[in-house]
Amino acid sequence: MQLKELTTKAEMLNQLPLIQQLYPDFTHQIYSDLLEEMLHYNYKQVVVYENGESVGLSGFWIGTKLWCGKYLELDNVIVHPNHRSKGVGKLLTEYLNQKAIETGCKLVALDAYTTNFPAHKFYYNHGFVPKGFHFVKFFEE
Questions:
Q1: Are 61 and 73 in contact (CB under 8 A)?
Q2: How confident is the model at residue 133 (pLDDT cuts 50, 70, 90)?
Q3: What is the phi/psi pair of residue 94, to 5°?
Q4: Distance (Å, whole) CA 77 – CA 58
Q5: What is the DSSP code (8-state) at residue 125?
Q6: Mean pLDDT across 26-36
């Protein structure tokens, strides 16, 4: 398996089939519009390839918050269902942990849906702990 960090919109748009594993209703246009906004805030992706095929990805951001200082946030970690339990998630998190250390981050953060128990188990097993709740208020559904 090979890792590649993506920084351009064109590279990220090629990942639409993998993104659709998590967001099946995303069209090319929806994904493109979102990336257009996100890239202005230094959004990047890292992708795992196996035999030239994208099998996992994570978006990530580096930012600073008052409560923790500089941090790296994993965003939408996706592993294709046919490639789960093969070390893809571990490869992604280890790469991003190292990236956080190299860029002077004090921690790595992520959100996981409250109903995604396999993800909770994975993150616990890789040293992540819950720090609080991520509350949201929707203005439209």
A1: yes
A2: confident
A3: -65, -40
A4: 4
A5: H
A6: 98
Tokens of 71: 């941090």
Its pTM stands at 0.91
Helices assigned H by DSSP within 23-116: 28-38, 88-102
pLDDT digits over 66-112, tens only? 999 999 999 999 999 999 999 999 999 999 999 999 999 999 999 99
The DSSP element (H or E) to which 21 belongs, if any, is helix 16-22
Contact by Cβ (8 Å): 65, 53: no
Sequence-distant contacts of 62-70: CB under 8 A, at least 24 apart: 62/100, 62/103, 62/105, 68/106, 68/107, 68/109, 69/106, 70/103, 70/104, 70/105, 70/106
Distance CA 26, CA 13 (A): 11
Q: Which residue has the tokens 């990336």?
A: 35
